From TrEMBL:
Catalyzed reaction equations: L-seryl-[protein] + ATP = O-phospho-L-seryl-[protein] + ADP + H(+); L-threonyl-[protein] + ATP = O-phospho-L-threonyl-[protein] + ADP + H(+)
GO MF, any single term: protein serine/threonine kinase activity
The EC number(s) this enzyme carries: 2.7.11.1
Coiled coil: none
Origin species: Volvox africanus
Designated name of the protein: non-specific serine/threonine protein kinase
Highest taxon, organism lineage: Eukaryota
UniProt GO BP: tRNA threonylcarbamoyladenosine metabolic process
Length: 288
């Protein structure tokens, strides 16, 4: 889809725009914070929030897609379609490289029995020898850290950071943030820490679904650590965010441990029920 010869996309809030029409649907979050006094899911407040968040980020020096037009009545906005790979694409390409794709049958078998999930893959990756990041990933992580430092120091969080919302512009490799439908303004260090932690979790979850989860998690971990390193050197408010990030990580680890324990209990209970049913069937057959 083009506008005056320029590639564009149309985002639609609550209208269900599909890929065949060149439109993307965005759901609104935090309805009480987006300027709609009714607090409902009406399009005017939602599209207004998305565009305002993008323009605010742009004023802070963050690269975002250009907004060519926004209609608060229909809830549609025409935006620049930024050409270039996404961070998730770079991670997938790094894992799929010929020299990285080879693996032994033992490794493949091990992947089959390992528990799924971001936490399990991250733990396995920590025990695996790290391969150096490809130059393009290293550069992207550095730029992303600087970008997030600008955004957070300016009092705004993205709130939907993942491989799909970070685009590396084609002609210069600059980081462009997309997907501002959940963004909001805040000066609270905990909100900024949660924004960073969400990126880490998203990258590891994407790694868990990769064909080579151990290698993908290794790259994802290195990317996030590079992001943090760049963020630390660029942010004037790093100390408070760092302290809260450690807190968020501890909370996440406890929650994950509880979920794993619950999963083990469910599996044990299901096994006991299956064994009980099997014994009951054997008893019926014996009496008949």
């Amino acid at each position: 889809m083009t506008l005056l010869g320029r590639p564009v996309i149309v985002i639609t809030l609550g209208k269900g725009g599909g890929p065949s029409s060149g439109e993307r649907s965005h759901k609104r979050s935090r309805p009480n914070d987006v300027g709609d006094s009714s607090g409902g899911d009406g399009a005017p407040g939602g599209i207004r929030q998305v565009v305002r968040s993008m323009l605010r980020a742009q004023k802070l020096g963050v690269l975002v897609p250009l907004v060519y037009d926004a209609d608060v009545i229909s809830g549609k906005a025409v935006m620049e379609a930024v050409a270039g790979p996404r961070l998730g694409d770079l991670l997938a390409a790094a894992v799929a490289e010929p020299e990285s794709a080879s693996g032994s049958g033992a490794e493949h078998e091990q992947r089959q029995v390992e528990p799924a999930g971001a936490g399990a893959v991250a733990e396995t990756a920590a025990k695996t020898a790290l391969k150096p990041l490809p130059p393009e990933l290293d550069r992207a992580a550095t730029f992303l850290g600087r970008t997030l430092a600008k955004l957070h120091d300016g009092g705004q969080v993205h709130n939907d950071l993942r491989g799909e919302t970070v685009v590396l512009r084609e002609h210069d490799g600059a980081v462009v943030l997309t997907g501002f439908n959940r963004s909001f303004n805040t000066i609270v260090a905990l909100d900024k820490a949660q924004d960073l932690a969400a990126l880490e979790t998203a990258l590891l979850e994407e790694a868990a679904a990769a064909q080579q989860p151990q290698l993908a998690a290794s790259f994802a971990t290195q990317v996030f650590e590079k992001v943090l390193s760049s963020y630390r050197s660029s942010s004037h408010l790093w100390s408070a965010t760092h302290n809260k990030l450690a807190e968020v990580r501890r909370t996440g680890a406890r929650q994950q441990e509880q979920q794993q324990q619950q999963a083990i209990k469910r599996a044990k209970r299901d096994a006991e029920e299956a064994a009980s049913e099997e014994e009951g069937e054997k008893g019926v057959i014996a009496h008949s």
